[in-house]
Design a protein that fits this description.
- This protein is of the alpha+beta class.
- Helices cover 16% and strands 43% of the residues.
- It contains four helices and eleven strands; from the N terminus they run αββββαβαββββββα.
- The chain has a seven-stranded antiparallel sheet with strand order 2-1-5-10-11-4-3, with helices on one face.
- Strand 7 and strand 8 form a beta hairpin.
- The model has no long low-confidence stretch (mean pLDDT 92).
Length: 158
């Protein structure tokens, strides 16, 4: 296989950039993810990619729930804030406010929109797991264009 061609081809897949949250026992956790897609209308199913061996992945496996916060174009700094672990104090990750709803997973007050899922399937092949969840709640804070990975200058794939 031509490694450069593979990298170029895989980088042609378009991605959004999201903050994905979950419960970890009685606590909450969140991370930046870029692999999110709807897989079914009825029931409404969403699949996410989660790196195995992380606190967030362990939390999703334990709690069987997660939230997806859709970020707005221009919220690169908000996405980058969750590339590394962020300490939670009360209802904030650092200075980023969140609240909870149906599943107890964190919903960012500054997110464009959000949805919460209950896990229905986990496929653990590769270094990331494919987690499928059924959407059980959703909300819109405001309308706007979602943040894309391309906008940040980052790439995934290869």
């Amino acid at each position: 296989m031509d490694e450069q061609a593979k990298k170029t081809a895989l980088r042609g897949i378009t991605y959004g950039l999201y903050v994905i949250g979950t419960k970890v026992g009685d606590d909450v956790n969140a991370f930046t993810g870029n692999w999110v897609t709807q897989t079914s209308f009825t029931p409404p199913l969403v699949a996410i990619g989660v790196k195995k061996g992380t606190t967030s992945y362990d939390g999703i496996l334990e709690s069987r729930v997660f939230s997806v916060n859709v970020l707005e174009s221009g919220q690169k700094d908000l996405a980058f804030a969750f590339f590394k672990p962020v300490s939670r104090v009360g209802n904030k990750f650092g200075d980023i406010e969140f609240y909870t709803s149906t599943t107890g997973s964190p919903i960012l007050k500054d997110a464009l929109s959000w949805f919460e899922c209950r896990v229905v399937d986990v496929n653990e092949r590769g270094d990331h797991a494919l987690v499928t969840g059924e959407v059980v709640d959703a909300g819109v804070h405001r309308t706007g264009d979602p943040l894309t990975l391309k906008e940040t200058g980052l790439f995934y794939g290869g």
